[in-house]
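Board notes (copied after class):
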Amino acid sequence: MTSFAEREQRSGTANGVPYLILPPASGRADAPIVVGWHLFDPPRTESAFAAAMPLDGLDAWRIYLGLPLCGARKPAGGDEEVMRLGMEDAVRNLYGPVQDQAVAEFEPTLAAIKAEHGLTGDRLGLFGGSAGAAAALGVLAATSLPVAAAVVVSPLTELRPLVAANGRLYGIVYPWDAGSEAIADKIDFVARAPELARAGAPLRLLIGELDDAEAIHAPAIAVAEALVAAGVEAEATVVPNMPHMLVDPPGDEPAPQTDYAAAADRLAVEWFDRRL
């Protein structure tokens, strides 16, 4: 089996955003394009996410974007500073700015990548894991570009229960106020399901069997149900034995694909292959 390092891949920076591209086997310039964003947890960089979920066998240009405040864009002080920001105020310092910037930079970044690599395909898919899933859903709700399909993995679809789950983990209670509530409203795709429905893209939500029931399972299922009720194709699928982290820590560098990430990868490819 070909290792990730042996795969054909391209990397660079566009519009200030680090990216990695896995070309389709056909090499067609007009092949569909799937854009994805990694997790905050491992795999937590564009290259590590590409290794974990390369969308094997999909005849598409798979473009993995680095999230703000992650990987090459970590603040001075690296992981320690990110942890400090999160403990100080995860909603204002991390989730809010990462979400806003990822959504705002998507269209110019994609345009720059397409121009640099001569990509001409107009069939677009969106893809992401956890916080990267929130970025994908935010883009789906906001972009002017037509999106043919989307897949999100262990998705952050509603911020409030995730913050509560993290609070239980660290033994703290987050002090919500008007400013942080406004951020949570942006990252609430149960409430924003009508916006996703207007985009009309078929959406598959892949939930890890070991994901938190309140933070991940329940809101992801609620999003799928809301879209189906609105007449949009959507499906929440549980991936057996899959935890929230798709690879072992630290998750910055490409690592061998886990069995559960491979299972999620196959389900994502199946969804995209029939719709792009």
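Comment from the instructor: The chain has a mean pLDDT of 97. The radius of gyration is 17 Å.
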